[in-house]
Amino acid sequence: MFPIMPPEGAQIILNRLNSAGHEAVLVGGCIRDTLMGLPPHDWDMASSASPEAVKMILEGFRILETGIKHGTLTILLDRPYEITTYRAPENSACRLFKDLACRDFTINAMAYHPNSGLTDPFGGQKDIQARIIRCVGSPKDRFAEDPLRALRAVRFQSTLGFSIAPETRSALDTVCLDPVAGERIGSELRALLAGKYAARALTETPEPVLAAVPELSTLTPDALSSEDEVVRLAAFFHMLSPQSIEKAMRRLAFSRELTDCTVQLASHADEPLVPADALRWLSKMPVRQIRRLAALRFALTGQRQDAFLKALESALDSGHAYSLKTLAVSGSDLIALGAEPGPKLGLVLTRLLDAVISGNLPNEPDALLKAAQPLLFEHAR
Ligand code: ATP
Ligand code: MG
Known about the structure:
Layout: H1 8-19, E1 24-27, H2 29-35, E2 45-47, H3 51-57, E3 62-67, E4 72-76, E5 80-85, H4 95-101, E6 111-113, E7 117-119, H5 124-130, E8 132-133, H6 139-145, H7 148-160, E9 163-164, H8 166-172, H9 182-194, H10 198-203, H11 207-212, H12 229-237, H13 242-251, H14 256-267, H15 278-284, H16 287-301, H17 306-317, H18 331-336, H19 343-357, H20 365-380
Parallel strand pairs: 2-5, 8-9
Antiparallel strand pairs: 1-2, 1-6, 3-4, 4-5, 6-7
Helix pairs in contact: 7-9, 12-14, 12-16, 13-14, 14-16, 19-20
Bound molecules: adenosine-5'-triphosphate and magnesium ion (MG).
């Protein structure tokens, strides 16, 4: 599998720094993924060079100080690359080894140098072979140092399908995640929920991780069957009230849009999807959300929603009105009838739409305008 062929941008960064007399290596997830035959999604680097030296050597490239407190810069080339200065103090011996010793799990504690090749001081390759997540160093100490690692262990179980080494697993039982920032939990949680092996990982989730993210305990494996992130999140949170979902997702630093979509789905999670109601659903929410709702119902009840989805497609194909946009009259048509512009126009249009959706009116201008007259009059009073 080796040598690794990183994208061109990474090669440029590594070559420049190494030819300037520093040491620069690829580290972490990209080495793990390459060894597993998976395509890495990012190519992180570590270097003996200080951030100032990196900036000088890579002068002319766009460089962002994305984590300067931790010595991390992001270099924008063919894609963004993160490069972090070795955590060990300058001039100390074995800085790469010390940097790797600070990393969480053996499978994430390997580095690759373009000339000298792989550094694997903690048996990461062996653990990849055996499909094991094992702390670097003493698990108890490492989890105490940064309790987020407990959630990361479950996250890697979920994304890689590995099991957790016995000593690491027993240390998980005494971790406390209280001091960890919600934002850090949120980003691991997202990865966890998206994992291919999430269902199995959840059945084994250690107590302290459940205490930090109680919603995990309400999840059934079926609830994670969807490919769609919003569906998974809605399945995850559906037992909570809309307000609690809002609060939890804000604490976990999810985006506004993801939160709104999740709240909308979760608040309809208990409603059966009846084929005859397809148009009504279309009047309530975007079609993408309705398809997600069907996936959510399947995830939660195990019942396929084929009949409803078929009705939804025919409703879309039929040209039948289901939204104000598809109604055959608009606000300006009503104004042309002599109505005053203002919010009541919206009310009248909505009532016309309701009548069209329930089949009491055809979606035709004449019929709609005729029906609008008394409504406009009634609302004007
Ligand atoms: P992914 O492929 O999902 O990005 P990753 O292993 O690259 O997985 P990141 O969160 O991107 O995970 O972290 C990059 C690397 O930094 C890890 O591989 C690991 O070596 C180290 N690392 C990240 N978080 C921690 C932590 N909390 N404690 C120790 N080392 C960590
Ligand atoms: Mg990464």
